[in-house]
What we know:
- The protein is mainly beta and 419 residues long.
- The chain has 4 helices and 16 strands.
- Strands 2-4-5-6-7-8-9-10 form an 8-stranded antiparallel beta barrel.
- The protein starts with 11 loop residues before the first strand and ends in a 14-residue tail after the last strand.
- Residues 1-19, 274-278 and 307-325 have low confidence and may be disordered.
Amino acid sequence: xxxxxxxxxxxxxxxxxxxxxxxxxxxxxxxxxxxxxxxxxxxxxxxxxxxxxxxxxxxxxxxxxxxxxxxxxxxxxxxxxxxxxxxxxxxxxxxxxxxxxxxxxxxxxxxxxxxxxxxxxxxxxxxxxxxxxxxxxxxxxxxxxxxxxxxxxxxxxxxxxxxxxxxxxxxxxxxxxxxxxxxxxxxxxxxxxxxxxxxxxxxxxxxxxxxxxxxxxxxxxxxxxxxxxxxxxxxxxxxxxxxxxxxxxxxxxxxxxxxxxxxxxxxxxxxxxxxxxxxxxxxxxxxxxxxxxxxxxxxxxxxxxxxxxxxxxxxxxxxxxxxxxxxxxxxxxxxxxxxxxxxxxxxxxxxxxxxxxxxxxxxxxxxxxxxxxxxxxxxxxxxxxxxxxxxxxxxxxxxxxxxxxxxxxxxxxxxxxxx
Length: 419
Protein backbone atom coordinates (compact mmCIF):
# COMPACT_ATOMS: atom_id res chain seq x y z
CA UNK A 1 0.00 0.00 0.00
CA UNK A 2 1.32 3.42 -0.95
CA UNK A 3 1.25 6.13 1.67
CA UNK A 4 0.93 9.65 0.34
CA UNK A 5 1.64 12.78 2.33
CA UNK A 6 3.27 16.14 2.10
CA UNK A 7 6.10 17.35 4.33
CA UNK A 8 6.58 21.08 4.74
CA UNK A 9 10.04 21.78 6.14
CA UNK A 10 11.37 25.27 6.69
CA UNK A 11 15.00 25.88 7.64
CA UNK A 12 15.86 29.35 8.93
CA UNK A 13 19.47 30.47 8.96
CA UNK A 14 20.42 33.61 10.88
CA UNK A 15 23.59 35.67 10.78
CA UNK A 16 22.91 39.35 11.17
CA UNK A 17 24.38 42.23 13.16
CA UNK A 18 22.51 45.42 13.97
CA UNK A 19 21.89 47.77 16.89
CA UNK A 20 18.86 47.02 19.03
CA UNK A 21 16.29 49.79 19.00
CA UNK A 22 15.45 49.22 22.67
CA UNK A 23 19.07 49.39 23.78
CA UNK A 24 19.43 50.67 27.34
CA UNK A 25 22.93 52.06 27.69
CA UNK A 26 24.82 50.82 30.75
CA UNK A 27 28.13 52.62 30.86
CA UNK A 28 30.33 52.90 33.91
CA UNK A 29 31.35 56.37 35.06
CA UNK A 30 34.92 57.11 33.84
CA UNK A 31 36.10 57.21 37.48
CA UNK A 32 34.22 54.11 38.68
CA UNK A 33 36.27 52.30 41.31
CA UNK A 34 39.36 54.38 40.59
CA UNK A 35 41.91 56.04 42.83
CA UNK A 36 43.44 59.40 41.92
CA UNK A 37 46.73 60.76 43.23
CA UNK A 38 46.91 64.52 42.64
CA UNK A 39 49.57 67.23 42.96
CA UNK A 40 48.35 70.83 42.69
CA UNK A 41 49.64 74.33 43.20
CA UNK A 42 48.19 77.80 43.07
CA UNK A 43 47.36 80.92 45.02
CA UNK A 44 45.65 82.01 48.23
CA UNK A 45 43.62 85.18 48.68
CA UNK A 46 42.96 86.19 52.30
CA UNK A 47 40.32 88.33 54.02
CA UNK A 48 41.64 89.34 57.47
CA UNK A 49 41.83 92.32 59.83
CA UNK A 50 44.46 93.96 57.62
CA UNK A 51 43.09 96.59 55.30
CA UNK A 52 44.57 95.25 52.09
CA UNK A 53 43.90 91.68 51.08
CA UNK A 54 46.88 89.76 49.84
CA UNK A 55 47.79 86.97 47.43
CA UNK A 56 50.28 84.23 48.24
CA UNK A 57 50.84 80.61 47.23
CA UNK A 58 49.62 77.13 48.25
CA UNK A 59 50.54 73.56 47.34
CA UNK A 60 48.43 70.47 47.93
CA UNK A 61 48.62 66.70 47.53
CA UNK A 62 45.51 64.51 47.67
CA UNK A 63 44.22 60.99 47.22
CA UNK A 64 40.69 60.34 45.93
CA UNK A 65 38.57 57.21 45.67
CA UNK A 66 35.44 57.06 43.49
CA UNK A 67 32.65 54.56 44.02
CA UNK A 68 31.63 52.38 41.04
CA UNK A 69 28.43 53.51 39.33
CA UNK A 70 26.56 53.27 36.03
CA UNK A 71 25.19 56.79 36.41
CA UNK A 72 26.70 60.04 35.14
CA UNK A 73 27.57 61.19 38.65
CA UNK A 74 29.71 59.44 41.23
CA UNK A 75 30.41 59.97 44.93
CA UNK A 76 33.99 59.85 46.18
CA UNK A 77 36.19 60.41 49.21
CA UNK A 78 39.19 62.73 49.30
CA UNK A 79 42.04 63.01 51.82
CA UNK A 80 44.59 65.77 51.41
CA UNK A 81 47.45 67.72 52.89
CA UNK A 82 48.56 71.21 51.98
CA UNK A 83 51.09 73.90 52.85
CA UNK A 84 51.47 77.54 51.90
CA UNK A 85 51.03 81.10 53.02
CA UNK A 86 48.38 83.79 53.37
CA UNK A 87 49.32 87.46 53.43
CA UNK A 88 48.04 91.03 53.74
CA UNK A 89 49.19 94.59 54.47
CA UNK A 90 47.97 98.12 55.27
CA UNK A 91 47.94 97.70 59.06
CA UNK A 92 45.33 95.80 61.07
CA UNK A 93 43.98 98.95 62.81
CA UNK A 94 44.12 102.71 62.50
CA UNK A 95 45.05 102.92 66.17
CA UNK A 96 48.88 102.79 66.58
CA UNK A 97 48.63 101.53 70.14
CA UNK A 98 46.69 98.56 68.83
CA UNK A 99 48.67 97.85 65.68
CA UNK A 100 51.85 99.31 64.30
CA UNK A 101 52.52 96.25 62.09
CA UNK A 102 52.28 97.10 58.40
CA UNK A 103 51.99 93.60 56.97
CA UNK A 104 51.83 89.90 57.80
CA UNK A 105 52.53 86.50 56.27
CA UNK A 106 51.12 83.39 57.93
CA UNK A 107 52.48 79.92 57.31
CA UNK A 108 49.65 77.36 57.07
CA UNK A 109 49.53 73.56 57.11
CA UNK A 110 46.29 71.66 56.63
CA UNK A 111 45.33 67.98 56.70
CA UNK A 112 41.81 66.77 56.13
CA UNK A 113 39.24 64.96 54.10
CA UNK A 114 35.75 65.09 52.70
CA UNK A 115 33.26 63.99 50.07
CA UNK A 116 33.27 64.73 46.33
CA UNK A 117 30.57 64.53 43.69
CA UNK A 118 31.83 64.30 40.12
CA UNK A 119 29.54 64.55 37.09
CA UNK A 120 30.66 63.17 33.73
CA UNK A 121 29.55 65.62 31.05
CA UNK A 122 31.59 63.46 28.70
CA UNK A 123 34.28 60.82 29.07
CA UNK A 124 36.93 63.53 29.35
CA UNK A 125 35.18 66.55 30.90
CA UNK A 126 34.09 66.15 34.53
CA UNK A 127 33.02 69.04 36.80
CA UNK A 128 32.97 68.32 40.53
CA UNK A 129 32.19 69.77 43.95
CA UNK A 130 33.85 68.99 47.27
CA UNK A 131 32.96 69.59 50.91
CA UNK A 132 35.23 68.70 53.78
CA UNK A 133 36.87 69.45 57.08
CA UNK A 134 40.52 69.76 58.03
CA UNK A 135 42.97 70.42 60.80
CA UNK A 136 44.78 73.75 60.33
CA UNK A 137 48.07 74.81 61.84
CA UNK A 138 49.04 78.47 61.33
CA UNK A 139 51.97 80.65 62.37
CA UNK A 140 51.41 84.42 61.80
CA UNK A 141 54.51 86.59 61.35
CA UNK A 142 55.33 89.90 59.76
CA UNK A 143 57.25 89.85 56.52
CA UNK A 144 60.50 90.31 58.43
CA UNK A 145 59.91 87.01 60.20
CA UNK A 146 58.80 88.36 63.58
CA UNK A 147 56.00 86.48 65.31
CA UNK A 148 52.76 88.39 65.62
CA UNK A 149 50.88 88.57 68.89
CA UNK A 150 50.83 92.31 69.54
CA UNK A 151 48.20 92.23 72.25
CA UNK A 152 50.07 89.54 74.16
CA UNK A 153 47.02 87.30 74.40
CA UNK A 154 47.93 83.62 74.26
CA UNK A 155 46.16 81.62 71.56
CA UNK A 156 46.41 78.16 70.08
CA UNK A 157 47.78 77.91 66.52
CA UNK A 158 45.53 74.91 65.87
CA UNK A 159 42.02 75.16 64.48
CA UNK A 160 39.36 73.11 62.69
CA UNK A 161 38.53 74.47 59.26
CA UNK A 162 35.61 73.92 56.88
CA UNK A 163 36.31 73.75 53.14
CA UNK A 164 34.10 74.10 50.08
CA UNK A 165 35.44 73.66 46.57
CA UNK A 166 34.31 73.43 42.95
CA UNK A 167 36.42 72.46 39.99
CA UNK A 168 36.89 70.85 36.62
CA UNK A 169 38.70 67.65 35.73
CA UNK A 170 39.95 66.97 32.22
CA UNK A 171 40.99 63.42 31.33
CA UNK A 172 44.00 63.53 29.03
CA UNK A 173 44.22 59.74 28.88
CA UNK A 174 42.85 56.75 30.79
CA UNK A 175 45.30 57.36 33.66
CA UNK A 176 46.26 61.06 33.45
CA UNK A 177 44.16 64.14 34.09
CA UNK A 178 44.46 67.92 34.47
CA UNK A 179 42.56 69.77 37.22
CA UNK A 180 41.36 73.32 37.88
CA UNK A 181 39.59 74.32 41.08
CA UNK A 182 38.80 77.11 43.52
CA UNK A 183 37.44 77.08 47.04
CA UNK A 184 36.79 78.82 50.33
CA UNK A 185 38.41 77.98 53.68
CA UNK A 186 36.54 79.05 56.81
CA UNK A 187 37.42 78.68 60.47
CA UNK A 188 35.56 79.90 63.52
CA UNK A 189 38.36 82.23 64.63
CA UNK A 190 39.79 85.66 63.91
CA UNK A 191 43.51 85.21 64.31
CA UNK A 192 45.05 84.01 61.07
CA UNK A 193 46.81 87.39 60.88
CA UNK A 194 47.76 87.40 64.59
CA UNK A 195 44.98 89.82 65.53
CA UNK A 196 41.46 89.40 66.90
CA UNK A 197 39.73 92.62 65.90
CA UNK A 198 36.18 93.37 64.88
CA UNK A 199 33.32 90.91 64.57
CA UNK A 200 34.26 89.03 61.40
CA UNK A 201 36.37 85.88 61.33
CA UNK A 202 39.35 85.50 59.04
CA UNK A 203 38.93 83.42 55.88
CA UNK A 204 40.95 82.69 52.78
CA UNK A 205 40.24 81.48 49.29
CA UNK A 206 42.35 79.27 47.04
CA UNK A 207 42.68 78.62 43.31
CA UNK A 208 44.71 75.60 42.21
CA UNK A 209 45.77 73.75 39.09
CA UNK A 210 47.53 70.42 38.80
CA UNK A 211 47.64 66.88 37.54
CA UNK A 212 46.09 63.59 38.65
CA UNK A 213 47.26 60.05 38.12
CA UNK A 214 44.40 57.51 38.05
CA UNK A 215 44.79 53.83 38.82
CA UNK A 216 42.61 50.84 39.60
CA UNK A 217 38.97 51.07 38.58
CA UNK A 218 36.24 48.93 37.08
CA UNK A 219 37.20 47.04 33.93
CA UNK A 220 34.45 46.58 31.35
CA UNK A 221 36.15 46.08 28.00
CA UNK A 222 32.95 45.53 26.00
CA UNK A 223 31.12 48.45 27.64
CA UNK A 224 27.95 46.50 28.48
CA UNK A 225 27.74 47.58 32.13
CA UNK A 226 28.91 44.22 33.53
CA UNK A 227 32.36 44.10 35.12
CA UNK A 228 34.84 41.87 33.32
CA UNK A 229 35.28 39.62 36.37
CA UNK A 230 31.55 38.85 36.32
CA UNK A 231 31.01 38.97 32.54
CA UNK A 232 30.36 35.55 30.99
CA UNK A 233 30.36 37.13 27.50
CA UNK A 234 33.21 39.68 27.70
CA UNK A 235 33.26 40.44 23.96
CA UNK A 236 29.66 41.58 23.43
CA UNK A 237 29.39 43.98 20.43
CA UNK A 238 28.74 47.67 21.20
CA UNK A 239 25.20 48.86 22.04
CA UNK A 240 23.77 45.40 22.66
CA UNK A 241 21.40 44.75 25.55
CA UNK A 242 22.70 42.06 27.89
CA UNK A 243 21.39 40.03 30.82
CA UNK A 244 22.77 39.98 34.38
CA UNK A 245 25.59 37.70 33.24
CA UNK A 246 26.74 40.06 30.48
CA UNK A 247 25.42 37.92 27.63
CA UNK A 248 23.21 39.25 24.79
CA UNK A 249 19.46 38.76 25.23
CA UNK A 250 17.96 35.84 23.29
CA UNK A 251 14.19 36.27 23.54
CA UNK A 252 13.18 33.22 21.50
CA UNK A 253 15.86 30.94 23.06
CA UNK A 254 17.17 29.75 19.70
CA UNK A 255 20.83 30.37 20.64
CA UNK A 256 20.93 33.35 18.31
CA UNK A 257 21.02 36.61 20.33
CA UNK A 258 18.39 39.23 19.56
CA UNK A 259 20.92 41.70 18.12
CA UNK A 260 21.89 39.11 15.48
CA UNK A 261 18.48 37.53 15.02
CA UNK A 262 16.43 38.57 11.99
CA UNK A 263 13.86 35.99 13.04
CA UNK A 264 13.51 36.99 16.71
CA UNK A 265 10.25 35.07 17.17
CA UNK A 266 11.40 31.66 15.93
CA UNK A 267 9.05 28.91 17.18
CA UNK A 268 10.43 26.28 19.54
CA UNK A 269 12.37 23.40 17.94
CA UNK A 270 12.80 25.11 14.58
CA UNK A 271 16.48 24.61 13.59
CA UNK A 272 18.51 27.76 13.03
CA UNK A 273 22.14 28.44 12.16
CA UNK A 274 24.24 30.54 14.48
CA UNK A 275 26.66 32.02 12.00
CA UNK A 276 27.22 31.79 8.28
CA UNK A 277 30.97 31.41 8.80
CA UNK A 278 30.69 28.91 11.67
CA UNK A 279 28.56 25.94 10.61
CA UNK A 280 29.06 23.92 13.78
CA UNK A 281 25.30 23.71 14.28
CA UNK A 282 24.27 23.82 10.62
CA UNK A 283 22.14 21.15 8.98
CA UNK A 284 23.47 19.56 5.79
CA UNK A 285 21.00 19.61 2.93
CA UNK A 286 22.02 16.09 1.91
CA UNK A 287 21.05 14.84 5.36
CA UNK A 288 17.74 16.72 5.22
CA UNK A 289 16.87 15.29 1.81
CA UNK A 290 17.80 11.81 2.93
CA UNK A 291 15.61 11.98 6.01
CA UNK A 292 12.69 13.40 4.04
CA UNK A 293 12.76 10.68 1.38
CA UNK A 294 13.58 7.60 3.43
CA UNK A 295 9.90 7.17 4.32
CA UNK A 296 7.46 5.50 1.84
CA UNK A 297 5.69 8.71 0.75
CA UNK A 298 4.34 9.30 -2.72
CA UNK A 299 5.65 12.84 -2.69
CA UNK A 300 7.56 15.11 -0.33
CA UNK A 301 7.77 18.89 -0.49
CA UNK A 302 10.36 21.01 1.31
CA UNK A 303 10.32 24.79 1.72
CA UNK A 304 13.78 26.13 2.62
CA UNK A 305 14.32 29.73 3.70
CA UNK A 306 17.65 31.32 4.68
CA UNK A 307 16.58 34.13 6.98
CA UNK A 308 19.70 36.19 7.51
CA UNK A 309 21.87 39.13 6.50
CA UNK A 310 25.62 39.19 6.85
CA UNK A 311 25.65 42.56 8.62
CA UNK A 312 26.52 44.55 5.49
CA UNK A 313 23.47 44.60 3.24
CA UNK A 314 24.90 47.01 0.71
CA UNK A 315 28.16 45.13 0.19
CA UNK A 316 28.96 42.28 -2.16
CA UNK A 317 28.49 38.59 -1.46
CA UNK A 318 32.07 38.06 -0.37
CA UNK A 319 31.78 40.78 2.27
CA UNK A 320 28.29 39.62 3.13
CA UNK A 321 29.42 36.09 3.98
CA UNK A 322 25.85 34.92 4.26
CA UNK A 323 24.50 31.40 4.16
CA UNK A 324 23.36 30.47 0.67
CA UNK A 325 21.05 27.53 0.30
CA UNK A 326 21.38 25.99 -3.18
CA UNK A 327 19.14 22.97 -3.90
CA UNK A 328 21.59 20.86 -5.91
CA UNK A 329 19.62 18.69 -8.30
CA UNK A 330 21.87 15.67 -7.80
CA UNK A 331 20.96 15.67 -4.08
CA UNK A 332 17.20 15.96 -4.49
CA UNK A 333 15.47 12.64 -3.90
CA UNK A 334 13.33 10.99 -6.52
CA UNK A 335 9.98 11.93 -4.97
CA UNK A 336 11.08 15.29 -3.53
CA UNK A 337 10.22 18.85 -4.61
CA UNK A 338 12.20 21.70 -3.07
CA UNK A 339 11.08 25.32 -2.92
CA UNK A 340 14.08 27.46 -1.95
CA UNK A 341 14.17 31.13 -1.03
CA UNK A 342 16.92 32.19 -3.48
CA UNK A 343 18.78 31.09 -6.58
CA UNK A 344 22.40 30.52 -7.50
CA UNK A 345 24.77 32.70 -5.50
CA UNK A 346 22.05 34.94 -4.12
CA UNK A 347 21.60 35.47 -0.40
CA UNK A 348 18.22 35.31 1.29
CA UNK A 349 17.16 38.26 3.40
CA UNK A 350 14.65 39.11 6.08
CA UNK A 351 11.56 41.25 5.80
CA UNK A 352 12.15 43.30 8.94
CA UNK A 353 8.91 45.25 8.76
CA UNK A 354 6.93 41.99 8.82
CA UNK A 355 9.32 40.22 11.21
CA UNK A 356 9.75 37.28 8.85
CA UNK A 357 12.09 35.97 6.25
CA UNK A 358 11.08 37.57 2.94
CA UNK A 359 10.40 34.20 1.31
CA UNK A 360 8.53 32.82 4.33
CA UNK A 361 6.32 35.91 4.55
CA UNK A 362 5.01 35.59 0.96
CA UNK A 363 4.76 31.80 1.22
CA UNK A 364 2.49 32.08 4.25
CA UNK A 365 0.58 34.96 2.69
CA UNK A 366 -0.20 32.93 -0.45
CA UNK A 367 -1.32 29.94 1.62
CA UNK A 368 -3.54 32.22 3.68
CA UNK A 369 -5.11 33.89 0.64
CA UNK A 370 -5.80 30.66 -1.24
CA UNK A 371 -6.35 28.51 1.84
CA UNK A 372 -3.94 26.07 0.22
CA UNK A 373 -6.04 25.69 -2.89
CA UNK A 374 -3.41 26.55 -5.49
CA UNK A 375 -1.05 24.60 -7.72
CA UNK A 376 2.68 24.47 -7.16
CA UNK A 377 3.12 26.35 -10.45
CA UNK A 378 0.87 29.17 -9.23
CA UNK A 379 2.71 29.27 -5.92
CA UNK A 380 6.09 29.34 -7.69
CA UNK A 381 5.01 32.18 -9.98
CA UNK A 382 3.65 34.18 -7.05
CA UNK A 383 6.79 33.73 -4.94
CA UNK A 384 9.14 34.64 -7.78
CA UNK A 385 7.24 37.83 -8.53
CA UNK A 386 6.60 39.09 -4.99
CA UNK A 387 9.93 38.13 -3.42
CA UNK A 388 12.01 39.45 -6.33
CA UNK A 389 10.27 42.84 -6.45
CA UNK A 390 10.15 43.34 -2.69
CA UNK A 391 13.80 42.33 -2.27
CA UNK A 392 14.91 44.96 -4.79
CA UNK A 393 12.76 47.66 -3.18
CA UNK A 394 13.38 46.84 0.49
CA UNK A 395 16.78 45.14 0.61
CA UNK A 396 18.31 46.63 -2.53
CA UNK A 397 19.49 43.28 -3.90
CA UNK A 398 18.28 40.42 -6.03
CA UNK A 399 16.54 37.42 -4.48
CA UNK A 400 14.70 35.00 -6.71
CA UNK A 401 13.05 31.84 -5.32
CA UNK A 402 13.27 28.65 -7.36
CA UNK A 403 11.86 25.12 -7.45
CA UNK A 404 13.75 21.88 -8.10
CA UNK A 405 12.07 18.50 -8.50
CA UNK A 406 13.50 15.00 -8.15
CA UNK A 407 14.18 12.78 -11.19
CA UNK A 408 10.91 10.83 -10.85
CA UNK A 409 8.85 13.99 -10.48
CA UNK A 410 9.91 15.81 -13.64
CA UNK A 411 7.53 18.67 -14.37
CA UNK A 412 4.50 16.94 -12.87
CA UNK A 413 5.01 18.96 -9.67
CA UNK A 414 3.59 22.04 -11.41
CA UNK A 415 0.12 20.49 -11.32
CA UNK A 416 0.34 19.38 -7.72
CA UNK A 417 -1.74 21.27 -5.20
CA UNK A 418 -1.06 22.18 -1.61
CA UNK A 419 -4.54 21.11 -0.62
